[in-house]
């Protein structure tokens, strides 16, 4: 029995020793993995792998660099992984490390390949000068992880020394359409501008087509809505030319602010006209409405054009580049070129601030006058409705202007609040000027849907009349 036990123990020990000899040693975790395109004893020649003995050259040996670009960084060891990268749906493209060119390759100690490149230089002495500068804005880099690159020595045109070569997979660029901010700025915001534009055009067309609405206040509302519509178009152009055309962006920026300034001047003119009418004892709306509109037009357009020219001149001559970039949209990764600076915007918006203060005075003074009036004629009754329209328009436009001022702050939430306010401003103007006024709805149904409308509910009733006579509505239509 003792002999049998010894024999079995000897057999077991022999089997364990034989098995242990076939077990590979555990891999060292401190080895750096480096991807090589060809075999260890091969180099790349004209796009094909060839043995070193056939080229009179030497095999490629990895040289590591640190994050700052210093070469010959020592590592504990490395392991070569042979083969080109599998890019699947991505494309492969080669990168050549040639002195004096716009591309450089550096193998980092963690095994990643760093590709340095110049953004604005094609090569030559200009590239050398840019490489010698520290922290140059033209220098960019991108890191390729394991499996997305391979490196090797490449020989071309009988070169015996060779150059450093890398075959990399095209970097994965995330789609901008999956970014919520891009969706809001490039899709939702233009759609809101389109809705507001349709509302402004509808108000302008209704007040221009219906003869009963072409009085002085109606013409002012028409021109005001045209200014707001032009501003929406200019703002939409700004959205799509933000990083492509600085000149077009500057032109759209100036048109946006000029149209907004003109709209506030027209609102100020309407407030002044209503305030002056309530103060006058003898009011005749039949006379000189066309001439009055010409006078108000001269006031509005001369002030608008003059302030616009002054603002553009101040921007081009006095505004610095820092101010120009500061006024640009701070919520985007880059600031658009061509944006009007703080000085130009101050020239535009200072008159708007003064018109807001003057309109507040017109509103308070007119309210006091209406409270003291004991009797109302048809003209005052009509002007009272015009005053209500002016008050609501003033509130909506003033709030929209305040949100525009807040949109220049770095907080994205305030910019989104401006987007919401701009989206609501157009429908609110349509509701104030058309939908909330029985007289306008009556005239629309009478002109468009009197007896021919397919919808019975849209036809006016036989006994439905406006709130004042036709002779009052027909005044000042010439």
From TrEMBL:
Where is this gene product found? Membrane
Question: According to its record, what are the GO cellular component terms?
Answer: membrane
Q: Which InterPro entries match?
A: GPCR_2-like_7TM, GPCR_Mth-like
> What positions does the domain G-protein coupled receptors family 2 profile occupy?
185-437
Q: Which first-to-last residue range defines the signal peptide? A: 1-20
Q: State where it is primarily located.
A: membrane
Gene3D superfamilies linked to this entry? Rhodopsin 7-helix transmembrane proteins
Gene Ontology BP annotations: cell surface receptor signaling pathway
Q: Which GO terms describe its molecular function?
A: transmembrane signaling receptor activity
Task: Report which superkingdom the organism of origin falls in.
Answer: Eukaryota
Keywords from the UniProt entry: Membrane, Signal, Transmembrane, Transmembrane helix
Membrane-topology descriptor: Multi-pass membrane protein
Give the originating organism: Homalodisca liturata
TM region positions:
193-210, 217-234, 254-275, 296-318, 338-364, 385-409, 415-436
Q: What is this protein called?
A: G-protein coupled receptors family 2 profile 2 domain-containing protein
